[in-house]
Amino acid sequence: MRRPARQDENASLADLLATGMLIAPDVCDLLENRLGRDAASVREVAARLTDGQRRGVAALPDPLPVTPAQSEVYDPVIERLTDIERSILLIAAVSVVDRTDVLLEAASAGMDAIIDGDLARHLRLVSGRFAIADPRLRAVTHERADLGERTAAHAALARTHARRGQRLLSAWHAALSTLEGDETLAPPLIELARDALVAGDARWAFAVARESASHAIGADLARSLRLAGTAALHAGWVEDAAAWLSRSVDSDDDVEAARGLASYATAVTLSSGVVPEDEVLSFAADVEAGHGSDIQASIAAALDATAALFAERGDAGCAERMRKRASSHDPVGPGPFPVRPSAAWCDALLAGLPSTDSAAGDHGRMRRPMHVLPAASPGVESVADRCARAITEAVVLARSENFDAARVVLSRAARRFAPTGGFPSPGSRDAPPRPRATPLVEAHLVVAHALVDAWSGRFDAAATELADAAVRLPIGLPFAGAGVALARRLEVLMDLPASTTTEALSVATPALEREGEIVDGLIDAAIRRRRDGDLLGAASRLAIVSTRPSPGRAASFPLPEGDRVVVLARAGMLDRAEDELGRLHRADPDVFPFARLGLIARAELAMSTVSELPGRAVAAEAIAGRLPSPFDRAMTNRAVSEALYELDDARRARLAQVASLEHLRESGAAELDQAGDDRFDLGRAVTRRASGTLIARVAQDMRDVAAVEHAGEEHAVEEHWARDLTTREREVAGLVIRGRSNREVAAALHVAVRTVEVHLGHVFAKTGVRSRTELSFLASRPSETVRRAVGDSST
User: Fold this and answer.
1) What is the mean pLDDT of the chain?
2) pLDDT number for residue 374
3) Which residues of 753-762 are buried (b: 16+ CB within 10 A; e: fewer)?
4) Across residues 519-536, what is the average pLDDT?
5) Distance between CA atoms of 30 and 64, rounded to whole angstroms?
6) Radius of gyration for the chain, computed over Cα atoms and rounded to the nearest angstrom
7) Does the pLDDT of residue 686 top 50, yes or no?
8) Model-level pTM greater than 0.85?
9) 687 vs 133, 331, 353, CA distance in Å?
10) What end-to-end distance do the CA atoms of the chain give, in Å?
11) Which of 10, 87, 283, 384 lies 20 to 30 A from 419 at CA?
C-alpha cells in the first residue's frame, strides 16, 4: 500500500481544513518547517495569510508574519544579546548567502563575537557556513528591527559583496538599502533574476525581479515585469503571475509584450480555469505583419501554448484552430516535426482526441500520426523546453504502451534537471548557474511519471510519487489538474480512505477543469458504488458520463477505471452498454492498443449470448496474457473466470480467479466488486441475451457443504427470484428469511451493515414487500404466486 504521510503533517492539514481555511499541502509543509512544527503557531500564521497565499497561488511573505506568541518567546532571547550580537543576527536574517566570512565582514566582527556569547546558541556554524537555528527567531529579528536598522544591514552586505566582486548580490542589497528608486540597479537585478530562474529557484527569481520592477524604467521595466510574471508562474504562484504578466503584455514594448504572451495565457488559464483565447487572438491581430521575426515567433509560440492548453482540456476544435493560427505567424514555417515543444505537446495530445474534421465522420480520428516526437530546436534550449520534450516523448511512448521506455525518458530528465535537495544559496551557485527545473516544471515531470505508472497498472508507485511530491510541489497545476484527479482515483481503486492531502489538493488547487472534474468524479463514485454492491447506482453514474457533452480533461488524460460496459450490462442498461461497446470499437487503435483489446474482450463477454460465450471466453483468456498492465490482466482474468463458471468449467475458472487476485495485488488495486475472494463459491446469476429475451442462469458449482441444511430456503429464493435479484441480493434475502439481523447478515457475508441495508432495500423494491415478515411469507409461497407478485421479468 501507499507509504503514509507523516502523522503530524496530516494532523496539521486536517486541523487547518477543519477551521475552514483552504490550504495547499506544500504551503502547510512549508509553514510547519519554518514554525518548528508547532500546531498553534501554524494556525496563527496561516490565519494571517491571504486566501491566495494559503492556497499556494500567491507568494508567501518572507519572513513569515510574526505572531504575539512568537514575540513573547523570542523577544527576551534578542534582548539578552549584546549590540554586536544583535547586529550579527540581523545581518544573518537579511543575508541571501550563508557564508560565515561574508557575515562577519559585513558586521565588522570576529568569530569570537559569535562563539563567546549567547549568539552561539542561535547560529549553526558548519564548514564555513551559517544558519539561524530557528526560523522563528529570524522572523522576530527582522520584525523587531526598524527601517533604519534593516537599511544599514543591507548596506553593509552591499559593500561586502562589492568588495568581493559579487556585483549582482551587491545590487540586490543596494536596492533594499536605498529609500529612493535607482534605475541603474535594474540591469544587474534583471541578470540576477535570470540566473536564479535558470538555476530553477523561481521563488528567489520572483523576489529579485519584483524588486527590479520597483527601480526600472523603459525597456528595463518591461523586462522586469515579464521576468517577475514568468518567475511567479514557475514558482506555482499563478495569481501573482497573471497580475504581473498582465502588466507585461500591456506594456509599450512590443518585443517584451510578445515574449510574455505565452506565459500570460498559461497563468490566466491555471488561475481562472478559462483559456484566454480572445486575448491571445486579439494581441496577434494587432501585430502588423511587418514586425520582425522575433515578435512573430513569440506570437506563434503563444498560439501554440494556447492550443496545448485547449488540448489538455480535451477541446480538439479550439486546439486545432489555434495551431492553424500559429502556423501563419511562424517564421520557420510548419513542418512534420514542430520546432516548438508546445506545438509537439499539443499535436501529441490531439493525436488521441476525436477529430473535428467533418470529412473524417463523427468518429474520425486526428489525421496527424500518433508518434509526433519533438524535434530539437537549434541553439540552447531552456530546461522547461527540454523537460517538455521529455514529457511529450514519454506520453507518446506510454500511449503505445511502451511504459518502461516512457519511465526511462522521464527518470533521465528528473535526474538531470530535478535532483533531490533544496536550492543552494545564491553565493554558492556556479557561474554561469547550472540549469535546473523550476517547481512548476518538476511538478509536470512528477505528474507525468505518476500517469505513466498508473496507465501501466503500478498504482502503489503512482500514489507514492504523488503523495511525496504534494508537500513540496504544486502538483495540482499540471495537465488541467490531472494529478489531483489521479490522486483521488488511486485512493478509490486501492480502496483507501480519502486522505487529508488529497482533500487539500482538491479544495486548494485553483480552477480545476470543470468537465474533467465532473466526469472523473462520477467515475470515482461509480467505482465506490460497485464495490459496495450498488450495481444500479454505479451504472446510473456511468450512464450520466456517457451523456456528457465532453469528457474534458478526461479525454486527454484518461485514468484507470472499471469496465463501463460490464457494469451497464449487469444493471440491465443494455442499450447504454451497446453504445459504450461501439465507442470502444471506434476508438483509435494506436492509443493504449492492448488496454483497448482488454476492454473490448471484457465488454463482449458481458454482452455475449449463451452461444457466443465459449468462443469469447477463449479469446479473452488469450488476450489476458498479452496485457502489459497487471490491473488490466486482473480485470480480464476475472471476466474469464466468471464466464468459465457459467460454462461449468470450475477448475479453469478457479485458476483464472486466482490469477486475477494475484494481478490485483501486483498493481496495488483492491477488488472492484463488493464480494470478496470467494464470490463465486455460492453461485452467480448472470443475465444474457438470447433471441432478444433476458434469461437467467445460476451457477451451482463449488457450493459450501455447510449450506446444505438450508437448501430448502435457498432453493426457494433462487427458484422464485433468480430473474429478479442479483446474487448478493439473494444471499441477503436468504439469510433474512432465516431470521438473521442485518448485523448478523453483514458478519456472515463479510460486508458492512450499510451494504446489507442497501441490498435489502433493493430486495424490498423488486419483490414489492414492505417488511422482513412479508419477505419470509412471500418466500414460502408457490413460485406462481411469486411470479404474480413481482411480475414476469421476461416480458
Assistant:
1) 85
2) 38
3) eebbebbbeb
4) 92
5) 10
6) 32
7) no
8) no
9) 69, 62, 34
10) 48
11) 10
- Alpha carbons 146 and 138: distance in angstroms, whole number: 14
Q: Cβ distance 298 to 314 under 8 Å?
A: no
State residue 693's pLDDT score: 26
Domain ranges of the chain: 592-703, 704-790
Question: Residues 147, 151, 154, CA angle at the centre, nearest 5°?
Answer: 145
The 8 Å CB, 24+ separation contacts for 281-284 are 281/325, 283/249, 283/257, 283/258, 284/325, 284/329
Q: 748 burial class (0-12, 13-18, 19+ CB within 10 angstroms)?
A: middle
CB-based contacts of 675, cutoff 8 Å, min separation 6: 533, 727, 728
Please name every residue paired with 131 in a beta bridge, in sequence order, or none if there are none: 124
Question: Residues with Cβ < 8 Å from 692, sequence gap 6 or more?
Answer: none
Closest CA to 107 of 160, 172, 174: 160
556, pLDDT greater than 60: yes
The span from the CA of 450 to the CA of 668, in Å, is 14
- Cα separation, 519 vs 209, in Å, equals 40
Query: CA 659, 662, 664 angle in degrees (round to 5)?
Result: 110
Q: Judge whether 571 and 609 are in contact, CB under 8 Å.
A: no
Read off φ and ψ for residue 683, nearest 5 degrees: 90, 165
User: CB within 8 A of 788, min separation 6: which ones?
Assistant: none
C-alpha cell at 170: 551587491
Question: And the C-alpha cell for 430?
Answer: 556556479
**Residue partners of 29: CB distance under 8 A and separation at least 6:** 9, 471, 472
Task: Dump pLDDT digits (tens) for 574-586.
Answer: 999 999 999 999 9
In order of 23, 41, 331, 527, the CA distances from 500 in angstroms are: 11, 20, 49, 20
Q: How many CB atoms lie under 10 A from the CB of residue 648?
A: 10
Please state, in angstroms and rounded to a whole number, the distance separating the CA atoms of residues 164 and 173: 14
Q: Is the pLDDT of residue 747 over 70?
A: yes
SS3 685: strand
Across 180-189, 305-314, 509-518, least confident range = 509-518
Looking at per-residue pLDDT, the higher value among 728 and 81 belongs to 81
Cell 561574508 locates to 102
> Does the pLDDT of residue 376 top 80, yes or no?
no
Residue 76: count other Cβ atoms within 10 Å of its Cβ.
Answer: 9
Query: Whole-angstrom Cα distance, residue 100 to residue 23?
Result: 36
**Grid coordinates of 112:** 569570537
Tell me if residue 402 falls in helix, strand or coil: coil
In sequence order, what are the residues at sequence separation of 6 or more whose Cβ sits closer than 8 angstroms to the Cβ of residue 659?
624, 633, 634, 637
Question: And the C-alpha cell for 497?
Answer: 480512505
- DSSP track, 654-722: HHHHHHHHHHHHHHTPPPSSSS-TTTTTT--EEEEEETTEEEEEE--TT--GGGGGGHHHHHHHHHHHT
Least confident of 454-463, 528-537, 753-762: 753-762
| Predicted confidence (pLDDT) per residue in 281-333, tens digit | 999 988 765 567 789 889 999 999 999 999 999 999 999 999 999 988 875 54
Asked if pLDDT for residue 88 goes beyond 80, the answer is: yes
The topology (CATH level 3) of 704-790 is: Arc Repressor Mutant, subunit A (1.10.10)
H helical segments located in 67-133:
68-79, 83-94, 100-107, 112-115
